[in-house]
Amino acid sequence: MKRRVLSGIQPSGTPTLGNYVGAIKRWARDQSQSESFFPIVNLHAITIRQDPAELANNTLDTAAWLLAVGIDPSQSVLFVQSQVAAHSQLGWILNNYATYGELGRMTQFKDKSQKLGPEGQLAGLFDYPVLMAADVLLYDIDEVPVGEDQKQHVELMRDIATRFNNLYGPVFKVPTPTMEEGARIMNLQRPDQKMSKSDKDDAGVVYLSDSPDVVRQKISRAVTDSGSTIEASADKPAVTNLLTIFAAISDKTIAALEADYAGKGYGAFKSDLAELVAVELSNLQAKFSVISADRDKLLATLDDGRDRAAAIADDKLAQVKAKIGLL
Ligand code: TYM
């Protein structure tokens, strides 16, 4: 049997170069070697207040971006999380197999709650990793390809699965997170923060929809580190970030790029990177505009994904309910 892979993306804005390099690009690259599931996780998106019309629109657009990058719905299951009710139902059940202490230790919750203040500290935001566990555990998943920021959440779902299995026998497969170089793309203006799609209109975030001119501007204005050598190191976070993006898009290694740019300044390096990203994104945008224009086809693709996902998820949910005595 092919190994099973699942990873989700929130429709909380236009996907960024961070989503692309850290996740979506390799989802598409590896999909033929696995049976893959890609939920658009709109129930996760509502843990931060969303405009309803925008959320609905972003959900379809996010699906269109995934298809533009190359997710092939004849191979992979692309669906909307809220349309497969088993996710919410298993999420509620699993709430009783994760503790307040465990959830309170999640760094993403701590970061977001600090940013949002008491009004934004919704129970759903706290509980978010449990719903992620349900997303994955419903499908007997082997691998969860994610960016670095999600690793802790995948570790927690492993603990939840193991705890449940220890109580009731083997019900859940225990998934493994997988990450690659590029798993942590930072903001071009604030290299100590991850590039995030929920930061809107941010000069340090490259959105997949940015025009070539905007891409050139953002990359040419990206902050750099002191000194002028182009090398990846802990004391050069800004240049390391640019090299990581360059490597992921050009399929060259960082070492090869360091050799290519030895003795050259930031100017040449940044302008080559800007060209590379601009071309990559305009190719994606051309595909996106065709795919996103045909809303009916997009909806039909998601309906099909929902049916394929639900067939598996409902079965697992039934097993779980039987194990714990829910009629
Ligand atoms: P989300 O929507 O924030 O991001 C989608 C994927 O993109 C990765 N990513 C990044 N990778 C590198 N550099 C960055 N700056 C960067 N920003 C985002 C994320 O790690 C992720 O892989 N909670 C998840 C969605 C989710 C999920 C799941 C993932 C819900 N259920 C089940 C895996 C399995 C999230 O908010 O992703």
Describe the structure.
The protein is 55% helix and 6% strand. The protein has 327 residues and is mainly alpha-helical. The chain has 2 domains: 4-184 and 294-324, HUPs (Rossmann fold), CATH 3.40.50.620; 212-289, Tyrosyl-Transfer RNA Synthetase (Orthogonal Bundle). The strands form 2 sheets. It has a 3-stranded parallel beta sheet. α4 (86-94) crosses α7, α7 (123-137) crosses α8 (151-168) and α9 runs antiparallel to α12. It is globular, with a radius of gyration of 20 Å. The chain starts with a strand and ends with a helix. Tryptophanyl-5'AMP is lined by residues 6-10, 18-19, 22-23, 41, 44, 132, 135-136, 144, 146-147, 149-150, 183-185, 194-196.
Describe this protein with a few key phrases:
327 residues; mainly alpha; Rossmann fold; Tyrosyl-Transfer RNA Synthetase; globular; binds tryptophanyl-5'AMP
Give me the secondary-structure topology.
Elements: E1 3-6, H1 17-30, E2 34-40, H2 42-45, H3 52-69, E3 77-80, H4 86-94, H5 100-104, H6 107-116, H7 123-137, E4 143-145, H8 151-168, E5 176-178, H9 212-220, H10 237-250, H11 254-260, H12 266-293, H13 295-324
Parallel strand pairs: 1-2, 2-3, 4-5
Helix pairs in contact: 3-12, 4-7, 4-13, 7-8, 9-12, 10-12
Question: Outline of this structure?
Answer:
This protein is about 55% helix and about 5% strand. The chain is mostly helical and about 325 residues long.
Distance between the termini: 32 Å
In total, the number of domains comes to 2
| CATH fold assignment of the largest domain | Rossmann fold
Query: What integer value in Å does the Rg equal?
Result: 20 Å
- Number of distinct beta strands: 5
CATH superfamily of the largest domain: HUPs
Quaternary structure state of the chains depicted: single chain
CATH architecture of the largest domain: 3-Layer(aba) Sandwich
Biggest sheet statistics: 3 strands, parallel
Beta-strand proportion:
5-15%
Globally, the shape reads globular
User: What is the number of helical segments per DSSP (H or I, 4+ residues)?
Assistant: 13
What is the residue-averaged pLDDT? Answer: 96
Overall SS class: mainly alpha
Helix and strand run: EHEHHEHHHHEHEHHHHH
Ligands in the model, by name, code or SMILES, are: tryptophanyl-5'AMP
Provide the helix percentage: 55-70%
Instruction: Show unreliable segments.
Output: none
